[in-house]
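Review this chain:
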Amino acid sequence: MSVLLMKGVEYDINNIRKNPNEKNFIFISYQQCTQYLSGLNLKPQDVARLIMLSTYVNYNGILMKNHKTPMSKNDMMEIVRESNTTRFNTLFQLLVEENVILLDKGSGLIHLSTILFKMGGLDSNSKATRIFIDETRYLFQNIKTSDIKGFGYLILLLPWISRSHNIICKNPNEEDIKKVVPLKVSELSNILGIGNKSIFNLRVLLQGMSLKNKTPLIISKTTEGNKFMNMIINPDIFYSGKSKGEGLEYTKALFMR
């Protein structure tokens, strides 16, 4: 199965942010992305690297080193913090073969699939998460290389983020916080393909990560004798809910303590 770049798509200029005080973000179509990428058997650290790359796309899906300079393959390797050329080339070739990365041989431009990643608006039926650019880059650039894998595991949980409260849960579309059901540790283990002990180690690792604004990446605790894992993701880095963030006041207050 291949994902094709949607060529010739005209982006709605009304979706481009005009307020300089608003945070810039990329949309990731999390349902398509996680289902598709799981079929590629990407390692969690490579999922994190792909998400990092997505923060460099422009409105046409072109990877840009900065506002004026298109990204080269060497730029990509540096940005994703992969020092092993062989490993990077293997990942790059796999993403090209599966049309996640698309190469324009004429211009030399490198694209990411706009079906999976897009700057600007998506249609109202899309199940997507906002990836806030500045905070994602800051986190990725400041964690240890060995911890990129842990960040990748968190990204794989995006389909289970509550749209209204940013809690990892069984029923992400539930708006009433009293009815949100957190995932069991065993369920997280099955989703991520790691043991229960590794889930607790992952929790400790993620709790030790902070964003640019000095707030934690996640807040988490266990209940019922460590049976359930209550994990809340900082909405300053990932957010799947309404554009104005209605209902997030309590969640944001937790991270500002």
Observations:
- The radius of gyration is 18 Å.
